[in-house]
Amino acid sequence: MLGLGGGVFLVPILSLIFGVPLKTAIAASAIAVVANSASGSAVYLKARFTNIRLALVMLVAMVSGAIAGGFLAVNLPEAILKGTFGLLLLYVSSVMFRRGRRAPGPAVTIDIDLSQDPHRLGGRYFDPAIDGVVRYVPRKLHIGLPVASLAGIASGMLGIGGGPITVPLYTIVMGLPMKAATSTSAFMFGLTASASALVYYQNDLIDPTVAVPAVLGIISGARVGAAVVRRIRSSQLNTIFVFVLAGLAISMLLDAFGVY
Amino acid sequence: MADPQIASKVPTAEVEDPQLEHLYDRTAQILAIGFWGSIAVIVAGLLVALVRGEGINDTTYHMERVLGQAVKLDASGLVDLGLLGLLLTPLAYVIAALLTFLRQRDWLFIAVCAVLILLFAAAIALALF
Hints:
The structure holds two protein chains of two kinds. Helix content of chain A is 70%, strand content 4%. Chain A is mostly helical. Chain B starts with a helix and ends with a helix.
């Protein structure tokens, strides 16, 4: 519904409300993010919104980061992870707040020069909203790859999908249309989260009694969300989530400092 | 195949790479089969636990023991197998992409897929040993 992968909600809910140890919550969230990506990406692939070639290139950086992030999650103290997560939630909340205030841009078909795309990383899809074909070529790969690596570290360390970083990266820096950005990001979450989840598996951090309800919950939530989003204005939805995320961020930061 | 309504609106000249088009459909199939297959195995494990009146373990079996336990219809073994199936599903689409790029002799993307598979192999090796 929001293109965030679900982990930004799942980890604090498991940790703060259900009292699950943070590292167990992160491991369960990573598996749930894989399930969410696998179940949601098929539709976008069929519509050709996803850019597989670009995703594979970006995944090299992101998966490397995710494995490193997985080891950080295993070895860092929980208080540092909670503090980092709290700061990330504040960042996501501010991104969503700005997104909610911004007027939607005009839907345009982007003209491209194929000579600028020697590795054929560009994409093309039919967008029913404008009744036309959208074509684009990603820009600034030299910035995109290191940032994707950081997104991978955040994903592996905190059990999130990485969407809060990759969607703005794709749209603002690399010039992808929003549908291509969210679909390609959602597609990438699966491989990224599964790489770090394997690190958690090795370290006995996966608790099936937490992971299975998390998987079933996030899949059900995604389906309910898809139904809800048709009945509620997106600006209202955005406002609700800005406040929920800000509240979770403050709770997480207080918990990190032992105040909560 | 692409959604016919969508495909019909894309100018013919732009559908230039049938193998890549096929990769999109194959990837969607792999994700759907991996996801629903894994969920089915997890649910089977939960049903076995329910019928036998036992719980499931709060830790996973070591990776090399999971298949053996699942074959014995151990509830926790089945749940762990389903979770591992979910984790390995994305790797399957990378392998499918590698096969497509091998047919196309697209060396850059063969290297990209090979690096991704090696990264995964390293993560799995760490989990096993």
